[in-house]
Design brief:
Layout lengths: L1 E7 L4 H11 L6 E8 L5 H8 L4 E3 L8 H14 L4 E4 L8 H6 L4 E5 L14 H10 L3 E8 L9 E8 L6 H25 L3 E4 L2 E4 L2
Parallel strand pairs: 1-2, 1-4, 2-3, 4-5
Antiparallel strand pairs: 5-6, 6-7, 8-9
The chain binds glycinamide ribonucleotide (GAR).
The site of glycinamide ribonucleotide has 16 residues, from helix 1, strand 5 and helix 6.
Amino acid sequence: MKNIIVLVSGGGTNLQALIDAQKSGIIKNGKITCVISSKPDVYALERARNNDIPTKVIPRKNYPDSVTYSQEILKTLNELKADLVVLAGFMTILDECVTKEYAYKIINVHPALIPSFCGEGFYGLKVHEKALEYGVKVSGATIHFVNEKADAGAIILQGVVDVENDDTPEILQRRIMENVEWKLLPEAVSLFCQDKIEIIDGKAYVKE
Ligand code: GAR
């Protein structure tokens, strides 16, 4: 059974999707054993507590820079003996001290079709604002491994939705969450926990 640690910073609807998937048996061979938040008082923490999942708050604002913050995260992940780290709406970029030690063991959900609308500065609603500003006709979400560059790790799964003429960033965000993020994130986590993701030449492939 793999030990899953989920990192959050906000409302935690993706965390909820993982919890629901765990309860209904969709996540095979893995268990969420701790939720770590970069902010106190976020609703994601409440969701974890409501489901008897241990929580830890490591506030980003208490650390002077990304390196010292990441060192604390690394120490905690090692203490918790994490097999898989899931960034579920985690809004802090982790330094390479974490991404190197946990190479191909950190999964992120990004709310666009990478390599579009991604990288530093593209997070949350901003991603959907930029997609609508550009006038794209489809968007979606990407589940990928995390490496030392923002949103640049190997892609595991992607899913697409149509963009409608009268979409607002909020409406598009919701459509992508409901149709893609909340389904593909648990699916990717389950594949990982069953050792069904293979890395060849830096690319991720789902084993048949
Ligand atoms: C989600 O849409 C997630 O894809 C996005 O933030 C939202 C968090 O929602 N993540 C990023 O933009 C990371 N770059 P949630 O807290 O309800 O899961």
